[in-house]
Amino acid sequence: MANAPAAASALALLQLLARHAEPMPAAAIARELQLPRSSTYHLLAVLADTGFVTHLSDERRWGLGVAAFELGTAYVRQAPLQRIARPVLSRLVEGTTHNAHLAVLHGRDVFYVIEERAPRRPSLVTDVGVRLPAAVTASGLALLAALPAQQVRALYPDRESFVQRNGLGPLSLTALNSELAQVRRRGYAVETGSVSIGFASVAVAALDHNGSPAAGIAVTYPAEDPPAAGPLVAAVRSAAADLSRRLGHRIPPPHPAE
Prior knowledge:
By secondary structure, the protein is α+β, with helices and mostly antiparallel strands. The protein has helices spanning 4-19, 26-33, 37-49, 66-77, 80-96, 138-145, 149-155, 173-186, 229-246; strands at residues 53-56, 61-64, 99-106, 109-116, 131-133, 189-192, 199-207, 213-222. The protein contains nine helices and eight strands. A hairpin with a 5-residue loop joins strand 7 (199-207) and strand 8.
């Protein structure tokens, strides 16, 4: 494990470049990583040799290289989120006997990547590949509630940003923030009739290793014949917690009593 510190520094350097929209000078990289300049230049040279970073000599800056792009596209090709989440959703469907689905946030929309159908349950509009306005879906509300307030404001800068469905859904940032506050207070999101008339959903966001919302897990059921709310919410919460753990999220330990 002698190379572990160097590997950790190399990964931290790549993550730093990934967080910045523009290439960075070596001095700024060294300062942000709190590394000696000699160590920073050594890491950059090694990563450049393997194609993970590239040196823009005219600008005297460093950016991500082709190998980093190839790694990112390989991640997408392998569909790891779907692979990781499918057994979680299968168990959720088995335990609740209702359809479940997984959605990710894409701008102001949610994009459905998994639908796990329960036996003898009807197909829903939330099929794989479908996009819907996030603010009218339980999954979207769960994901938006897990975002920083400034990010929500950036997504919904004006009234033209809001789209209703079936005549339902918020039409202003004030109304959306009120709904998101309820989601945070309850710990889960709900919707009734705004996606499909006659159906309702309960959703919870799964978090990634950075604590950011990675996907929304939801169960949909007939609104006229709802399951017991307590067990259903507990099942969805458990599934979201399971997926969060699989994605590397770790709940920090509570602070010791003063």
